[in-house]
From TrEMBL:
The keyword Mitochondrion does not apply. SUPFAM superfamilies: 2Fe-2S ferredoxin-like (SSF54292), alpha-helical ferredoxin (SSF46548). The lineage of its organism: Bacteria, Bacillati, Actinomycetota, Actinomycetes, Micrococcales. Its cofactor is [2Fe-2S] cluster; [4Fe-4S] cluster; [3Fe-4S] cluster. It comes from the Bacteria. Residues 149-180 form the 4Fe-4S ferredoxin-type domain. Keywords: 2Fe-2S, 3Fe-4S, 4Fe-4S, Iron, Iron-sulfur, Metal-binding, Oxidoreductase, Tricarboxylic acid cycle. This is succinate dehydrogenase. NCBIfam families: dhsB, PRK07570.1. The keyword Oxidoreductase applies. PANTHER family: SUCCINATE DEHYDROGENASE, SUCCINATE DEHYDROGENASE IRON-SULFUR PROTEIN. It is an enzyme of class 1 (oxidoreductase). One of its GO terms (molecular function) is succinate dehydrogenase (quinone) activity. Belongs to the succinate dehydrogenase/fumarate reductase iron-sulfur protein family.
Length: 247
């Protein structure tokens, strides 16, 4: 495949940045998108040019490190992570624009790398269970109804990649936040801190500069794990209940 890439280059947070055009030839349709960028970086290195900075780790769709805006779509044209996107999703001769996640709460570090520490700080604000449970109990010692267990597992699939934020016109992190709240809220172990958790995590979300949800639904469509929008309803319900309880 022959492709034209327009890639965002920015030397650092204070640089204004801009799109730079690269022509690629003989790209295998079976390459992943990141492998295609690796090939480009090898060429840039060979020419003594600065390689393009981008994030990745597992390259298996499980860690949430990768994330690019590809021709205006978070993670590209398929519902998957950028590392699991393959070049067969594009046509020979295509022009592909590659940009970093765009959100005030995700400042650009360099090229395609953004600082997603805001998501980590939301977790630090309450996305955990602090009760001392002693040694690991038998798996069946705390019965969890099947429906609750299924919903907790569904919400726990969120890998925190930030695609929901990048896709949202408000740059809201509420799908991410709703997934974390739903995950713990469905389990008995999550009940003692339920009110404090939601108040603290929502406060941190807003403090980080993420926007509010206006029910656009782009977050859920972009989510590589298919987290449904109703976790945001759960989040709002939990917040209302916590405020009623005087939190
Ligand atoms: S690199 Fe881990 S999900 Fe893409």
């Amino acid at each position: 495949m022959n492709l034209t890439l327009k890639i965002w280059r920015q030397t650092g947070p204070d640089d204004t940045g801009g799109l730079v055009t690269y022509r690629m030839s003989d790209i295998s349709p079976d390459m992943s998108f990141l492998e295609m960028l690796d090939v480009l970086n090898e060429k840039l290195n060979a020419n003594g040019e600065e390689p393009i900075a981008f994030d990745s780790d597992c390259r298996e769709g499980i860690c949430g490190m990768c994330g690019l805006m590809i021709s205006g779509h978070a993670h590209g044209p398929e519902r998957t992570t950028t590392c699991q996107l393959h070049m067969r999703s594009f046509k020979n001769g295509d022009t592909i624009t590659v940009e970093p996640w765009r959100a005030e709460a995700f400042p650009i570090v360099r090229d395609l790398v953004v600082d997603r520490g805001g998501l980590d700080r939301i977790i630090q604000a309450g996305g955990y269970i602090s009760a001392n449970t002693g040694s690991a109990p038998d798996a069946h010692a705390t019965p969890v109804p099947k429906d609750n267990a299924d919903r907790a597992f569904m919400a726990a699939e969120c890998i925190g990649c930030g695609a929901c934020v990048a896709a949202c016109p408000n740059a809201s992190g509420m799908l991410f936040l709703g997934a974390k709240i739903t995950h713990l809220g469905e389990l008995p172990q999550g009940q003692p801190e339920r009110d404090a958790r939601v108040v603290s995590m929502v406060g941190q979300h807003d403090h980080e500069g993420f926007g509010g949800c206006t029910n656009v639904g782009a977050c859920s469509q972009a989510c590589p794990k298919g987290i449904p929008q109703d976790v945001i309803s759960q989040l709002n319900k939990d917040l209302r209940t916590a405020l009623k309880h005087g939190r």
